[in-house]
Design a protein that fits this description.
InterPro entries: Ribosom_uL1_bac-type, Ribosomal_uL1, Ribosomal_uL1-like, Ribosomal_uL1/biogenesis, Ribosomal_uL1_3-a/b-sand
Function: Binds directly to 23S rRNA. The L1 stalk is quite mobile in the ribosome, and is involved in E site tRNA release.
Pfam families: Ribosomal_L1
Structural class: alpha/beta
CATH class of the largest domain: Alpha Beta
Number of strands: 9
Strand order of the largest sheet: 7-1-8-9
Shape: globular
Largest sheet: 4 strands, antiparallel
Strand content: 15-25%
Keywords: Repressor, Ribonucleoprotein, Ribosomal protein, RNA-binding, rRNA-binding, Translation regulation, tRNA-binding
CATH superfamily of the largest domain: Ribosomal protein L1/L10, rRNA-binding domain
Order of helices and strands: HHEEEHEHEHHHEEHEE
Protein name: Large ribosomal subunit protein uL1
Distance between the termini: 37 Å
Number of helices: 8
Length: about 230
């Protein structure tokens, strides 16, 4: 049996078993949790009523959170010509083609996001086995295959996030940091919640969200009453 840390035991006491909390209550409890020695992220887990084996039911999208994520990200950009200067000017951490591909192959730099101009996708496509599992393969739906690098980079810096369901039909997403105010976390969550709801496949009937919980990086999850949102 896995041993529960003293910190986790203290945090678990604050959550009543089988109780479903309002979003405001849940965020308030998270902010009273005994925290780690770093600023923890606040995450949401959405159990959605889809069959992930059917490609037409899979959920993916992107959203710019009103208060950002509070996370500093490292951005790599594949591009050529005049766009090299644009990418450098607006905050890319590394810009290139073959040289950037070599860095990714050797994994000498860990990137949080990869953006690519369309003309570089033949090269980027070969990196799929590396970028795919990391969840950073450029995709037009996420705005990471782009002809407007300025917009893509600035949105990423402001807190644009990408989401998609896993093989079990669950969407995991960060929506802020624990040092955000309660209203900032509430508004970020609501924006994410509504955006995912818009991605509901047309053929799905009935309930879409089966269960939603929120947590910090190190805390237990708190189930929220999503039907009241």
């Amino acid at each position: 049996m896995k041993k529960i840390s003293k910190k986790m035991q203290v945090n678990l006491i604050k959550i009543k078993k089988k109780k479903i909390y309002s979003l405001h209550e849940a965020i308030k409890i998270l902010k009273t949790m005994k925290l780690a020695n770093f600023i923890e992220s606040v995450d949401a887990t959405f159990h959605v009523n889809i069959n992930p084996k059917k490609s037409e039911q899979n959920i993916r999208g992107s959203i710019l959170l009103p208060h950002g994520t509070g996370k500093k990200i490292k951005i790599g950009v594949f591009t050529t010509g005049k766009n090299i200067d644009v990418a450098n000017k607006y905050g890319a951490d590394f810009v290139g083609t073959e040289d950037l591909a070599e860095i990714i192959k050797k994994q000498t730099i860990k990137f949080d996001l990869i953006i690519a101009s369309p003309e570089t996708m033949d090269l980027v496509g070969k990196l799929g086995p590396i970028l795919g599992p990391q969840g950073i393969m450029p995709n037009p739906k996420f705005g990471t295959i782009s002809t407007d690098l300025k917009k893509s980079i600035l949105e990423a810096r402001k807190g644009k996030i990408n989401y998609k369901n896993d093989k079990n039909g669950i969407i995991h997403s960060n929506f802020g940091k624990i040092n955000f105010s309660q209203i900032q976390l509430y508004e970020n969550f609501l924006t994410l919640y509504k955006n995912i709801m818009k991605s509901k496949p047309n053929q799905l009937k009935g309930i879409f969200y089966k269960k939603i919980s929120i947590s910090t990086t190190m805390s237990p999850g708190i189930i929220i009453d999503h039907l009241s949102l």
